[in-house]
Amino acid sequence: MGKDLFKEKLKVVNTGLNSFKKNLTDTGTSAVQVDWKPPVEVEPELLEIIEKNRSKINTANKKVLEIILNGKPILTGMDIAAKVIPGMKKNLILHSGPPIKWEKMCGPTRGAIIGALIYEGLAQNRKEAEKLAASDEIEYSPCHEHSTVGPMAGIVSASMPVFIIKNEEYGNTAYCTMNEGLGKVLRYGAFSTEVIEKLKWMDKVLYPAMKLAIARAGRIDLKNIIAQALHMGDEVHNRNRAATSLFYRIIAPEVIQTTSDPKTAAEVLNFINGNDHFFLNLSMPAAKATLDAARNIANSSICVAMTRNGTEFGIQLSGTGDEWFASKAPLPDALFFPGYTKEDANPDIGDSSITETVGLGGFAIASAPAIVQFVGGSAKDAVNYTLTMYEITAGENNMYQIPYLNFRGTPTGIDVIKVIENNITPFIDTGVAHKKPGIGQVGAGVLSAPLEPFKKAFEGLAGELK
User: N or C: which end of the chain has fewer CB within 10 A?
Assistant: First the structure.
């Protein structure tokens, strides 16, 4: 038998660098690449602390996962930000990502703040807005610290209308502005006259109509819409066409019933119908309301926030309270609009990765393989991205399911310990803003989260467990 072995054609299983496999295949040798990486290097003392507390961590994570899976995000109404968002006031601007000061803000965030100050009537033009924004008169705070989320720049100012989403199972609430559409919009850092005019129209026309329609509907089950949308080709981060359509079917009769002017009703419905991303600003607070209920569970290693401000990428764990763990935000791999290249792109930005944090977006990309075409990928790549995410999560969702994977639940509950042990970071799909303020969206793409925030969070959790 040993003699026969040496007569067989050589077949190699490579666990090293990809270049090793390439060298073999270039010579005609059959080789298979094992997708494996060694664990992230951390202090041995910290590994020992985590290992000693495995039982406590597992018990805490089981509780966190149960809270996440039992969450019931319901759209209950709309109101003005200053009236409902905790701590909101006239001179406060909320932004996406971890805390940041004006001096370190990226172009899109600055551009959106300029637009918000003009929208609020606190400045008349860019020059006035920039001067005010850089002064001590304006305060800044992360959306996440006010039960709120915002896509891209994530800017929320006092008089902006917001959706109100209640987690019926646990009683907490989350908020988000309405989605403006793609391209040259505030959330991508644009602030031209047309951008402000659209925001004013949303304030004066869209908001009153939506508020009445949602009130008449009574409650709109967002979890049910998301579950259906996953079966229809969405992952409810970068693709929301099915979810927006399902929402439209619910809200359209209510708009018609509550809007006295047929022309206004048609205008409102045409806006929603023409904006495939309208539901993004509902899927995000649905995820936020679900995850906020799972905060402050001692000893848990599960992420409850993962977000970017265009300068830094930050995460929070259930077991480490309100502490932020952050590092430099990466650039996405993207398909750019004509006339733009990677040189124009701002680093990753937005609270929309709250969808991945709850097991949607890039974690559910096997349900929306069209997304990977942004970077020349295939349907097989989309499936592999989702399968890889099971390696770093605490469980699977009992309602959000992926048809292609025989209706397997989406990977849910990012476990920072598994990220470190497997050396795999979360996969995110995202939009891309121009790095200069005032220009807007220049593309869309995908990326893997940076490792550093997860390493810092691992160290922070170990410190809590000492």
Answer: N
